[in-house]
Amino acid sequence: MQQMIDSQALHTDFYQLNMMKTYWELGRADKKAVFECYFRKMPFKSGYAIFAGLERLVNYLDQLKFSEDDIDYLREVTDYPEEFLDYLKDFKFECTVRSAVEGEMVFNDEPLVQVEGPLAQCQLIETALLNIINYQTLIATKAARIKSVVEDDVVMEFGTRRAQEMDAAIWGTRAAFIGGFDATSNVKAGKLFGIPIAGTHAHSLIQSYLDDYEGFKAYAMTHKDCVFLVDTYDTLLSGVPNAIRVAREMGDKINFQGVRIDSGDMAYISKKVRKQLDEAGFPDAKIYASNDLDESTILNLKMQRAKIDVWGVGTKLITAYDQPALGAVYKLVSIENDQGQMVDSIKLSSNAEKVSTPGKKQVWRITAEDGKSEGDYITLWHEDPRKQNELFMFHPVHTFINKTVENFDARPILVDIYHKGKRVYDLPELFEIKQTAQQSLDSLWEEYKRNLNPQKYPVDLSKECWNHKMRTIEKVRKGVQKNRNK
Ligand SMILES: Nc1ncnc2c1ncn2[C@@H]1O[C@H](COP(=O)(O)OP(=O)(O)OP(=O)(O)O)[C@@H](O)[C@H]1O
Ligand SMILES: O=P(O)(O)OC[C@H]1O[C@H](OP(=O)(O)OP(=O)(O)O)[C@H](O)[C@@H]1O
Ligand SMILES: O=C(O)c1cccnc1
């Protein structure tokens, strides 16, 4: 019963159900459609993004059906006829879904997920699909940017208390791990996903003893591994000296791992703390730091040669503080007409970059002999660049920017996840996904990876795809003109 009440089918916008009703009532519900999900602008002005969210999308699709309870609710609050409610009750997911795999680096204006199947079904899942992919891809990308500056230091995820509610903390933590974080303070995320859990203690422990020494001592008597938070009263005069005192007193009874600082000038303080620890005979004790950190503060602290070994990052990661939404969209690219033929559809805009690319497509990652990515190449579905000896790659708007690539490898980015409603993809282990992210980023030139003003990675259209887009624009324009003249 609980399972049925917790059905996710109503995790959709009301307008999706209303459109489903239109399609159903007018006999269009089962028309074949193709939708693609993509984002238009790179998040955080980043040179790359890390795709995440597929596992949760699969969890959602695997169990997608309307419970009795859902149907009762819809009966109560809508004027839907019983026949339509029966149609929803019998709903069985039958779409074919192709997607980038989690951890794969992805870019703007390329399909990340493609859904093909009965129009009404494709429509229903739009909201949940975007909800999941938008958030998790954003957090995995933010995490990768942070990891890129901490380099080989350990970085821990501390964001749960500041996340936008409980689900975001859990799935955001998983996305952060994919993007390169090493551990989390969220115990449930540890249990669910096998992410290493780690942590220190809070100011409240010290405050409850009204004294650094008493607080550290209490913690040390009850724990083997100890990292003491030293900034409750005065880091240099009280926190660190008392941490050293307890570490000496307890000797081998504890693993004195280090101290955490959480306020003040962390470059200045960390250098002083390092000196205190070294002089006291604890050169291996690590200095942990937290306090509103993000990739730019961390980079700055590194430039100031702050003596920080372990970074704790919460708010600015889990809330994607500097860009709270990825803005991925889900657009109809092809639809079956009344004659049973597929017609490719387009969304026009006065802004050239915003005009959608019609037709069912594949994204190919083009790699040169040195193993580095040359760019992504979007083709119509039937094209296969692997059959070509050389590839002409050009910017889809500024077409004079172009190059010809030889001796390349082309790898399809969209892989089969569901075939006509049946799952054909086994979800990888999380550590494999993390590895995918690492390998993916290793194939990217440094120029695309720097956090500030990176070069723009090429995402090009094949000649055929580009010509098709131009012809479709022309056709739609002529249609609009004809209607105006009526
Ligand atoms: N040396 C530094 N260079 C650049 N930024 C720093 C440096 N030291 C700390 N910061 C960052 O400065 C920001 C603000 O620190 P601020 O001094 O206001 O906090 P605080 O001392 O912790 O105050 P509070 O006690 O209220 O927490 C934090 O994001 C922190 O990470
Ligand atoms: O700064 P963030 O990147 O968000 O990292 C998480 C923060 O959460 C804790 O502070 P909080 O004031 O909530 O609790 P405390 O009393 O333990 O310091 C911790 O000390 C960090 O400062
Ligand atoms: O373990 C910690 O130090 C921790 C956990 C959550 C938030 N801030 C710090």
Automatic annotation (TrEMBL):
Known EC number: 6.3.4.21
Gene Ontology terms describing biological process: NAD+ biosynthetic process via the salvage pathway
Domain of life: Bacteria
Cross-referenced Gene3D superfamilies: Aldolase class I, nicotinate phosphoribosyltransferase
Record pathway: Cofactor biosynthesis; NAD(+) biosynthesis; nicotinate D-ribonucleotide from nicotinate: step 1/1
Domain Nicotinate phosphoribosyltransferase N-terminal intervals: 10-134
Pfam families: NAPRTase, NAPRTase_C, NAPRTase_N
Protein name stated in the entry: Nicotinate phosphoribosyltransferase
